[in-house]
Structure formats: structure tokens, C-alpha cells
Amino acid sequence: MSTTQYREGAKLAIVGAGAVGSSLAYAALIRGVARRVVLYDVNGPKVRAEALDLAHGGQFLPEAVIEGSDDVAITRGSDVVVVTAGAKQKPGQTRMDLAGSTVALMQKVIPPLVEHSPDATFIMVTNPVDVTTQAALKISGLPSNRLFGSGTVLDSSRLRQLIATTCDVAVGNVHAYVCGEHGDTETPLWSTATIGGVPLTEWERTTGRLGQAERDAIAHRVVNAAYEVIEGKGATNYAIGLAATRIIESVLRDERRVLPVSRMLAGWHGISGVCMAVPTVVGRDGAGTQLELPVSDDELAQLRASAEHIRAMSEGLGF
């Protein structure tokens, strides 16, 4: 580890230098979210090469130091630690298929990270993210506001992009959430979705767009988006890198954005004891207030089923 003296500023540690970790580092550097970005991976030549490649573009980025190492000590004193390391999802494989091997890896990875950065906020990105978050929470002993998952931040972005394209509006004017599991049982919350403040149900009445058939088709595309990308190029990396960077920004800049991250629930619409994505205020203290937005009876039934799906998998792995 370098003995260089660093200027004051936030330190971001990214665990895993694969497609997701390196894309996340790239996005974070471009956005200027931290003064120091470190990559940690057991593959020393790979992680050092990724850091070097990123550092070579330093002239064109906000001022930052980027380093890579296979020594976990490089993460010491981090403000935010993002865990992307895990088994790679293969074509035809569900996120839950990854659970066993990934959770076993977390039992080795999490303790030394907490030891080196006991005051950090930990963001889990590794799939299946809800189960991995639940396991990491128990392994780490950290409070649930300081260790949470990326949840359905990316899924909600996919939903908003498809709604915007269908209705020919700017994606920034679409407000809609996907909640529940980051995976096959996730649920778009159509009942509270709006475009420019206009409920989607009203939008359908006045424009003839976003009828039930279109909504079902969009929901299907959102759920299967990762599989579509994986089949074509082997991994999803750019969008999750951007989504995770948005979460990191909200923590380090205390933006208090409402993001559907995966945090342990305690009575959210009667659901408790499971890590699942719901709209949450994210800021300097991590994942804070979980917003209990109105949901329809059908949506609530789907969300409860999603929670039970995550719970069953977690309990099957001893968490």
C-alpha cells in the first residue's frame, strides 16, 4: 500500500474488480464522488491493471487518487465500502441460483472489511442482493442503516426508461418504483407511478397509452432485463455502476434521496425481518426512513410473496 499523503476527502472502497466493480469505479470517478477510490480484489494483476487504466484517464476526471490491490488493508479507513465481488451470473441462471456460493464468500470477505473500516457505510451489490444483504448484516453485526443493498434502484431506472419511451416523455419526469426482491418476484408499483405529477391511470385515460397490456409488457421486460443483457454480452455492468454511484453520492453528500434500496424491514406494510427493496431516504447516516407509500391490494400481495421468497432462501442458507 502506498505511503503517499492524501488530501482530505471521502474514501470509497470497491470490493471486486470484475465488470461491475470496474464500471462502478469508472462511474464514481467521472461523477467525482470521492477524493480517493480504491479497488480490492484477490486477483492482484487484474485489480492493479484496472486501477492503472483508470488512473491514466485522470487528466479528464475530477481530481482523485485511484489505487488497486489484492491486500484488504487498502480499504482501511473507508467512508463507504461497496461489495461487488461474487459468483458471475451465467445465461439461464437466476440470481437465487447464485445464493449459496455467494453467501459462503461473504463469510470470508465481510469480517476483514469491517475490521479495517468499522465506521463505514456498507453497500451490497452482489447478487442475489437481498439474500446477500441479509447474510452480510448478520455476519457483520452492523446496524441495518449502515449495511444495506442496492435493491431495485436499477430496476426502477429500467421501469422509468421504458415508461418514458412508451409515452414519449423525458425519463426525469417519470416517478415510478419497482419494489420487493431484486429479481424474478419484484413488483412495479403502478398505483403510485406518475408522469409530471399526473397518475399513470389518468395518463392512460387521456392519452390511450399505458393500458394494462402495455404495463404487463413493461413489467415483463423489467424483470427479464438482466437476462437479456447477460445473454447478449455475458454481464450487466454499466447501468448497475451508475445506479450504485447514485446511492454512494446520496450517502457521501448527504443528499437524502428517496431510493428503493434493500434494507431490513420492520413493519413496512406489516412485513418484517427480511431485507427487501422499498423507497428509503438515503443520506449521511445510510439507509434511513422507509416510506410506507400507498399500495394496491394486488401489489401488497405480490410484495408479501416476494418477502417470503427472500425469507425462505435466507433461512435455507442459515440466515
TrEMBL record:
UniProt protein name: L-lactate dehydrogenase
Classification via Pfam families: Ldh_1_C (PF02866), Ldh_1_N (PF00056)
Source organism (scientific name): Propioniciclava sinopodophylli
Main location: cytoplasm
HAMAP family: Lactate_dehydrog
Subunit details: Homotetramer.
Binding-site residues, substrate: Q89, R95, N127, P128, V129, D130, D155, S156, S157, R158, T236
Top EC class of this enzyme: oxidoreductase
InterPro entries the UniProt entry points to: L-lactate/malate_DH, L-lactate_DH, Lactate/malate_DH_C, Lactate/malate_DH_N, Lactate_DH/Glyco_Ohase_4_C, NAD(P)-bd_dom_sf
